[in-house]
Amino acid sequence: MTDRPQDTPADMPAAPPDDPAALMERILYEVKRVVVGQDKFLERVMVAMLAQGHLLVEGVPGLAKTLTVKTLAQAVHGQFKRIQFTPDLVPADLVGTRIYSQKSGEFSTSLGPVFTNLLLADEINRAPAKVQSALLEVMQERQVTIAGVSHKVPEPFLVMATQNPIETEGTYPLPEAQVDRFMMKVLVGYPSEEEEFVIVQRVTGASIAVAAVADTRQLAALQKACRAVYVDPSLVQYAVKLVALGRDPARGGLPELAPLLAFGASPRATIGLVEGARAMAMLRGRSYALPEDLIDLVPDVLRHRLVLSYEALAEGLDADALIRRMLDHIPAPAKPMAHAEGA
């Protein structure tokens, strides 16, 4: 697969897909021809893509994180680029720079690898703060500024950053402002023995060619259709209550959590829950979100935004343990009525 820009006319509007669920099913089928297992991880990647969010992924090396994103890019005929973050990386290596030509006597702009559809930032916490801040503008504004001129990145645009949980030497902690820009933090675990058997067979066998079953215009149309998925106000209120409980547990009726949480999540978490529920409902073939769509995403949306106190860390607690107690405390709303599908 090349990194050549797609030959898609800029003025050609994306037609709404006739059957969004069927198109996404074809994309997932094509990816799973190559990637074995990792169903939850792949589902979260699709949710982030539909909801136009970004993913922070934590897992040991060799769990098909890069392969998943690369294969997905091939299935949607998009551009894929991978950046290995290292301590000597500078912002220009990421976003691009101005180059002086002695022959013409003029400056030209050389755009960096962030100008792609799917960007994999491998071991993001190995780069210094100024490189991480350069990625910050791209993730939030979907543009970069070089010599005072703004350049838009291609659409759709998804950043998937990875962290290695077993090697901390030579790493830089991610700033809270940047961590908050990630819609979800997904934990990727080891495959089962049965899955690992199939992995070995596929890797050691004949290579599988990935077919492009969609294009970036169709993906943009899916994103637009995702924004039209109905979310009941009671479900939005449920998300608000969950996030508010993390900020002030005592006020929400869980005073025992107050000493364990230093800071709660920002409103970006509430927005991420609602947008993620929309995408999850769309993946499941519905035009309206149900409580289970949102509940399934709560740990992924909140685990990197809750800042635990020293007391919680001393007790060996993690964010997921506190999130489970929060979910048990606040009852989920009743499912929306069937007529809400046409709302």
From TrEMBL:
Pfam families: AAA_3, AAA_lid_2. Coiled coil: none annotated. Keywords: ATP-binding, Nucleotide-binding. SUPFAM superfamilies: P-loop containing nucleoside triphosphate hydrolases. The keyword Nuclease does not apply. One of its GO terms (molecular function) is ATP hydrolysis activity. Residues 54-184 form the ATPase AAA-3 domain. CDD domains: AAA. Residues 259-324 form the ChlI/MoxR AAA lid domain. Belongs to the MoxR family. This is MoxR-like ATPase.
